[in-house]
Amino acid sequence: MKIEVFENSVELGASAGAFVASLLRKKIAEKGFANIILATGTSQFQTLNQLTSEQDIDWSVVTMFHLDEYIGISEMHAASFRKYLRERFLSKVPQLKDAHLINGENDPGLEIARISELIQSRPIDIALVGIGENGHLAFNDPPADFETESPYLVVNLDDACRRQQMGEGWFESLSDVPQQAISMSIRQIMKSEYIVCSVPDERKATAVKDSLENGVSNLFPASILQQHANCTFFLDKHSATLLSNSAVIR
What we know:
The protein has 250 residues and is α/β, with parallel strands linked by helices. The protein is 31% helix and 19% strand. The protein has seven helices and ten strands. The protein has helices at 9-31, 45-53, 81-90, 108-120, 159-167, 186-190, 205-213; strands at 2-6, 34-38, 62-66, 68-70, 98-100, 126-129, 152-156, 180-184, 194-199, 231-236. It has a seven-stranded parallel beta sheet, sandwiched between helices. The protein has a three-stranded antiparallel beta sheet with strand order 4-8-7. Helix 2 links the parallel strand 2 (34-38) and strand 3. Helix 1 packs across helix 2 (45-53). The two termini are 18 Å apart. 45% of the residues are buried.
């Protein structure tokens, strides 16, 4: 586990995106293709902006998997993560080999079976993730399931998670926020060769401290990342403010 701390979210995203690009070039050079997982939400804005602006990446050999999606949300809804990825990533790299998005409007059981089969045959090189205000990883809210081997699962969203989604402006009221989602499981995320975790903003400071300085516990789902050999945290000085041994700000 490695921690990088930056002055602000723009510098964080520029560094994280450039780092992901370097890993992609490396994996493509080694084996001729790469498989990645992309997260969504406000924490990924700057990282994806940088990644899609990087040069000399052969996107035609890259396959993308989707981290999570609300159940029952239309792709036209402002909060749809499919919509987010189409606008902020896929439209900017149209030559991508393949993109496997989660359709939250399909029968959840059938959709989980479909996308789980796809990801099981394509080992993941790089996963881009964030941490929720409640410490969740993907939509695995506390207490998260650390044991399931299913690549994807239906999860119940707790009130803290739902309030975060409303607070970020994706929904007009708490009652509008879905109560369930399809999420990539903790164990599937941890199977990625590299994990890049981008976490800007002071409202994430408690979750960052809990995830990095407490013992590994499903009450702090992102704390599991402490056990990953190649996980790099990209923080800004605001999200890192509560760390007792913060890295030097770049």
